[in-house]
Amino acid sequence: MNRQTQSYLRSLFARRGIAPKHRFGQNFLIDLNIHELIVRAAELGPTDVVLEIGPGAGALTALMAETASAVIAVEIDPAMAQLTQDAVIERMNVRVLNEDALASKHTMNPKVLDNVRAGLAVAPDRTLKLVANLPYNVATPIISNLLISPELCPVMMVVTIQLELAERLKARPQTDAYSGLSVIVQALADVEIVRTLSPKVFWPKPKVESAVVKITPSPEKRARIADLAWFYAVVRRIFLHRRKNLRRVLYSAWRGKWTKPEVDAMLESIGLTGLVRAEAMNVEEFLSLADALKARFGSMSEEDEGGDDENDEGGPPDAPEPDADLDES
User: Fold this and answer.
1) Cα 53 to chain center, whole Å?
2) Per the confidence metrics, is the pTM higher than 0.85?
């Protein structure tokens, strides 16, 4: 395996007549130590099927293929897909797909998912892991869509992402970084920032710091959520108004279906006050609130889309498909 240094990549790209494309978020890791750190953090073994998004020149792909049972590398750029293919030409356990990993920000590409299913079907003990230097522009939807997948949620994700996003995944209530994404991820998984990364370990250098993040979905946490789509919808709906008091937001969301005293009574029953704001609520409080709302209403229909008294911002769709856009503020 060629050492993926800046000089090596510059020479390789010059020979191929290609260059990094900003629109695809192409920033290549040029520190082999970081590649090895990612593989160690992912704890890869002979039963793991690895999904890699944005393999680029294929250095990490080749390294993972030494240990994993299979690697499915998904690269949107045809020129980079060919570089990945060349880097793993002798690795029969690697499949390179020249595809967009996303069908939209709301859904993964079905062809990618079909290849993952095929890899997992080879043996009953195979497990899925997402391990990648994720392009910044798709990091949130990739992580979100896989995490909430009822069928293909990885047992672990080890990814390099923008440090700001990494901090958002771990953010606590009453901080600027805290968002609906923080709640959803922490309700389903444990998050660890393995290492922060300087821009100098990439080529071209990004303008921001990055981080290697380990996300470990928890079956116990997932079992706590009876209806994930409902929980998602509640979190997203409330964070549309993160700085407004909860009584007002809930009364507006089901306008005409209850009174403000009834809102207060429901909140009091789960230990909340109507004056609390979304940005101050912790994950457990969101879980309790979602359960109480589910018991009372069961769904969010189109007629529940009323705004609040001062600023009508609408409501969520009816029983939405899990959506990757959770960063309303």
Assistant:
1) 12
2) yes
- In angstroms, the CA 129 to CA 67 distance is 13
pLDDT at 309: 37
**Cα distance between the two ends of the chain:** 44
CA distance 21 to 18: 9
Largest CA distance in the chain: 71
- Could you read off the pLDDT of 246-297 as tens digits, one per residue? 999 999 989 899 999 999 999 999 999 999 999 999 999 999 999 999 999 9
C-alpha–C-alpha distance, residues 52 and 39, integer Å: 12
Q: Is residue 142 a contact partner of residue 53, using CB atoms and an 8 Å limit?
A: yes
State the DSSP H helix or E strand holding residue 194, giving kind and residue range, or none if neither: strand 189-197
Instruction: Tell me the two tokens of residue 226.
Output: 């009876």
* Domains of the chain: residue spans and CATH: 6-223 (3.40.50.150), 228-304 (1.10.8.100)
* Residue 165 host element (H or E): helix 163-170
